[in-house]
Amino acid sequence: MHAIIRAMARSRKGSASKPSRRAPRNVSSARFDKLAAGLAEVGRSFYQRGWVLGTSGNFSALVSDKPLRLAITSTGLDKGALDQKQFLEIDDQARVVRGDGKPSAETALHLAIARTRRAGAVLHTHSLWSTVLSDALAAAGAVTIEGFEMLKGLDGVHTHQHREILPIFENSQDIAELAAQVQARLENGAAMHGFLLRRHGLYTWGRDLAEAKRHVEILEFLLEALGRSKSGV
Ligand SMILES: [Zn+2]
């Protein structure tokens, strides 16, 4: 008991003398700023690769788990000129708790992935090959990729013989309904690293931003390799 009281006294003294280092909001604020800067850099890099042209795509990262808070892109921004000040912090109901603007139209999908996969970051691209293959293979319900060395860039994959199955969801402007479908599939525990929206794009995630970025690079490479080998170009 005495130890607890001493600890509380130390804590009170500490918070009085160093408020900026102890206040949870400031810790969260520094984390938000760092994540927003990282996401902005990822956006500029993906734009250069042609994966998020014409204000398409959106990105988020986990600011805190409990309560759930995401740093996420505002809607309608040029991803080639993203600035960290353009990011918003939202709660688990997609309400803006930091920043000015409207969160991405596809926010519910980011929240569904963050909840079910405990993802540290979620990245969404509108690349050419994810658009083409999600349509060409829609009847199969998934894009299946196997036999490529680059599969080893996916978390937990150690051999080119791995079979990666990316489910394809029919695209919809009813994002709440789409997010419910995605969440139900993710809750089934399928060992996927991403999924596709038909004629729309790729969603992937990672335990942190670096892993999510790597997953985009790996999956975009694999989709292009598969698409080119199927079409002979
Ligand atoms: Zn999209």
What's the gyration radius in Å? 20 Å
Query: Which range does the strand content fall in?
Result: 15-25%
According to CATH, the homologous superfamily is: Class II aldolase/adducin N-terminal domain
Strand order of the main beta sheet, please?
4-3-2-1-5-9-8-7-6
Helix count equals 7
The total strand number stands at: 9
Low-confidence stretches: 1-23
Say which molecules are bound, naming each kind only once.
Answer: zinc ion
Which H/E pattern describes the elements? Answer: HHHEEEEHEHEEHEEH
Characterize the overall form: globular
Mind describing the biggest β-sheet?
9 strands, mixed
Named CATH topology: L-fuculose-1-phosphate Aldolase
| CATH class type | Alpha Beta
What is the residue-averaged pLDDT? 90
First-last Cα distance = 73 Å
What proportion of the residues is helical, as a percent range? 40-55%
Tally of discrete structural domains: 1
Return the structural class: alpha+beta
Q: What is the CATH architecture annotation?
A: 3-Layer(aba) Sandwich
